[in-house]
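Can you give me the bound-state structure? Components:
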Amino acid sequence: MTAYDALIDHVRQTRALSTAAGILSWDQEVMMPEKGAPARAEQMGALEAAVHTRRTDGRVADLLADAGAEKIDRSPAEAANLRLIAHETKRASRIPADLAQAIAKKTAIAQGVWAKARATNDVPLFLPHLEEIVALRREEAAAVHEGDGPLYDALLDVYEPGMTVAQLQPLLEGLRPRLTALREAIAAKSDAQPNFSGTSNKDGQMTLAHKVAEITGYNFTAGRLDLSVHPFSSGSNNDVRITTRVDEANPMGCLYSTIHELGHALYEQGLPADLEGQPAGASVSMGVHESQSRLWENQIGRSAQFCTHLYPLAKEHLGAMGLGDAQAFHRAVNRVETGFIRTEADEVHYNLHVLLRFELERDLIGGDLEVADLEEAWNTRFERDFGLAVPDPAHGLLQDVHWSVGLFGYFPTYSLGNIYAAQLNEALRAAVPDLDAQLARGETGAVLSWLRENVHTKASVNEPGAIVENASSQKLSSEPLLTYLETKYATLFGI
Amino acid sequence: MTAYDALIDHVRQTRALSTAAGILSWDQEVMMPEKGAPARAEQMGALEAAVHTRRTDGRVADLLADAGAEKIDRSPAEAANLRLIAHETKRASRIPADLAQAIAKKTAIAQGVWAKARATNDVPLFLPHLEEIVALRREEAAAVHEGDGPLYDALLDVYEPGMTVAQLQPLLEGLRPRLTALREAIAAKSDAQPNFSGTSNKDGQMTLAHKVAEITGYNFTAGRLDLSVHPFSSGSNNDVRITTRVDEANPMGCLYSTIHELGHALYEQGLPADLEGQPAGASVSMGVHESQSRLWENQIGRSAQFCTHLYPLAKEHLGAMGLGDAQAFHRAVNRVETGFIRTEADEVHYNLHVLLRFELERDLIGGDLEVADLEEAWNTRFERDFGLAVPDPAHGLLQDVHWSVGLFGYFPTYSLGNIYAAQLNEALRAAVPDLDAQLARGETGAVLSWLRENVHTKASVNEPGAIVENASSQKLSSEPLLTYLETKYATLFGI
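Here's the bound-state model for the whole set.
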C-alpha cells in the first residue's frame, strides 16, 4: 500500500466518524426522545474527541510527507486530496488544544446565554460572553493566519476556502447602493403586492413538499424528508436528509424552505461517487452550498414560469390561498417588505442584512470596533440601510445565533451564495435557451443536469471561486445578481 | 482526580461511542435511505475501531491497578465497576487482534452465505463457513477460558456472566420430559383452540401498540416506538427505542411483539440514573433481559385477567377478529401448535427448540459433534422431541441466523429468560396478592414497581443469577416455569 493510499484510508475513517456524528445530530433534531439530550451530548463529545485524536495523530503528517515524496503522477482529485489534507493538518497543528477547548467550552455556554438575552432583550447579559468569544477567535485567527491580509481572512477561509477580504469586500459593498435604490423604488409601489390568506393543514403542506422534491429530482432512495423546528439539510452522497417546518398560517414557509433545502441536498446527492469519503469529493464551501439552495429557491422556485406550474399544485394541496391565479401566486411569493429579521427577508433586503453583519464582524475581528459599541453600531447602520429604527435587540443585534457559537466569517457566505447563484443562473440560461418553457411545464431536469455537470461533480477538486468562475465563464462579480434582481422587480412592479 | 474516577471517565467515553453505534444501528433498520448501507458500514467500522482502540489502551490496565491500590472504601456499585472493567479488560487482552478480526470478517461473509443457503435449502453451501466459525470461536474460548469446565463456559459467560454448563444443563434438561408430556396432553385436545380471522389495518395495530405501551408505563419522553422488518429494542436509560411490525393478516404478531419489546425497554428505562454510563449501571445479561420481555409478554400479557382488559381494546382497534369474547381472545393468544420454527413457537414448544440448539452447539464447541454431522443430529433430535420430521433445512438447521454470525452460547439465554421470568412471576404474585384483579382493570403499575425495585435498579451490581435468586428468594430452578405452564394449560384445556 502506498503512503497516499494509507493516508486516504486514515482520512476516510476519520470522516466516517464525523458523518456518524452528523447522523446523530439529525437524529437529535428529528427523532430523539426529549430526555435523550444529556446522553447525546456525551456521545457527540466522545465522537469529537475520537475525530480530534485521529486528526492530530502524528501519522497523518508522516504519511503526507511520504506521499509527497512518492514518484507518482497525481490526478487532479488526488492532488486536491493532498492539498486539502495538508491544509487541514497545518491548521489543526497550529491551534493549541487548550484554545480549541476554550472556544468549545465558551460557545457552549454563550449559546444558552444568548437565547436568554434574546428572550429578555438583555444586551448587557450577552456582551461579556461575546467579548470573550471575539478574543478567542482572534487568537485562533492569529495562530493560523498567513499572508498580508487582515486576521479575518483566516476565519473566512474556514467557510469559504481561498476567499479574502480583499476579494470579498468589493463584491459585497458593490451591492448596497443599487439594492437600496431598488428597495426604495419598490416601496413606492408596495400597494401592488398580493398576499396569501387562510390556512392549510400539515398533511397538505407535506404532500406538496414531497411532490416538489420529486419534481426537482431529489432521490428518495438516497434521502429523506422530515419535520423539525428549523429546516436544515445534512448528510452527503447516498444518505442525505432534509427537514422542513409546517406553519398552518404560512404554507409558503414550508414550500420555499423545502425548495431551499432541496438545493443543498441535490448538491450532496450529486457529489462524485468515486471520490466519496475523500476530501476532494466533499462539497466545496458554504458559499457554493448556499448558491445551490438559493438558485433552486429563487431563480427557479420563484420564477414566473415555475410558478405557473406550482400554482395549481399548491392550490390542490393547500387550498385557494386567497389568490386568483398563477400570476397572483408569483407576485405573492415575491413580496418585498422591509423588516428587521434576516431570516424573513426577501431577495432585495437579504443581502443588506448580510452586509451589515459582515462589516460589523470584520471590524470586531480587526480590532476596529469594540464589543461595547456593537449595539450602537448595529442600530445606526440599520437605520441608514433600511430606513427603520431597530425597536429592540431581539429585532437587532440579538436576532442571530451565529456570533454566540463563534461563527465569525460565516455570514458573508450567504451573500456569496446569492452572487454565485446569479452567475450560475446566467450561464444555465445561456446553456438551456428554452428553460422557461421547461419550467412552465414543471420540468427541471435540465437545471439539475447542468448543475451536476458544472458544480456538483466538481466537488472540492478546485477552490470554490474557481468552480463558480469556470461554471459561469466569468470572474466573480455582483453584477449578475444586481441585474437579475433589477430586471425581475422591474417586471413585477413596473419600475 | 482519583485513578478510579479517571478510569470511570475513560470507560464512560468508550461506552458513549458504543451507544452512538447503537443509535446508528437503530437508524439503519428504521430510518436510513436504502442506498445508505455502504456508508453506514464504514461508519460502524470506524466506531468499532475507535471503541477497540480505547478498550485496549494500556491506560486502562494502569488505571485499574492504580484504582485497586487506592485506599478508599468502595460502594457495591464501585466494586462492581472495578470487577466488570477488570473482567472485560482481561478478556480483551487475551483475544489476539488477528483472531478478533478473523471472526469479524468470517461472520460478515457467512451471514450472507447463510441467507442464500436458507433461501435455497443448500446446507452444503453453508457448512464449510460454519466449520470455520466453530473453529474460530473455539480458539477464542480457549484463549479466555478459566476454571475446569468445558470450553463452552467461556462463550456462555459473554451473554450470561457467571453461568456455566454445570449449572445450566440440569436447569434446561429438566424441562424436556414434562414439556414433552404437556405437549402431548394438549395435542389430544387441540380441537378446543379458537383462532383469529379477518385482517386489521396498520393504523389500528399501531394505535393499539401505543396504547399498550402507555398501559405498561413505557415512558415516551425517554423512548420511541417505530416500525421495522424485525421487531427489536435498543438503547438505555433516557433514550430507549423499540420497534414492532405490522402484518394485516396477523394483528397478534404486532401486539405481542410490542409487549415483548416493551419488557426489554422498561428494563432499560428503569436502570439506575446515578450509574448511567457505568458498567455497574448496565443491564446485566441476555437472560435477565429476556426474563423481562417474556414476563410482560406471557405471564402478564397472555394472562386470563389482562386479556379481559385487552380484548375490548383490541376489538376497538383491530375489529372483531372472529372472537366472541375475552375468554376466546385469551384462548386464541395461547394456542398451542407443534411447528418447526422457533420464533413462531408457543410457550410449550419454545424451550424445546432452545434445548435442541443448546445441546448441539455445546457438542460442537466441545468437539463431541462434527459440523458435517450437524444436520442429521438436528433432524433426529427434532423428530424425537417434536414428533415431526423436518421437511427441509429452512425449517430445520438453517432457520436461525445466530450461528452464521458466531453466536454460540447465546441460545440458552432464551430459556434462562423463561426460567427467570417464572421465578420472578411467583415472587411478584406473592408480593402483590391482588395482582389478577389489577390486571383485569388494566393496571400494571404494581408489576413495573416490583420489577423496578427487584431487577431494574439492580443493574449489574451483582451477577445475573444472584439478582434473580435475591428477587425471587429461591435458587435458580426450572420448577416455577414448569408449574406455571402445567397449571396454565391445565386450566385452558381441562387436562
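A couple of observations. Chain A touches chain B through 40 residues (CB under 8 Å). Residues 1-72 of chain A form one domain.
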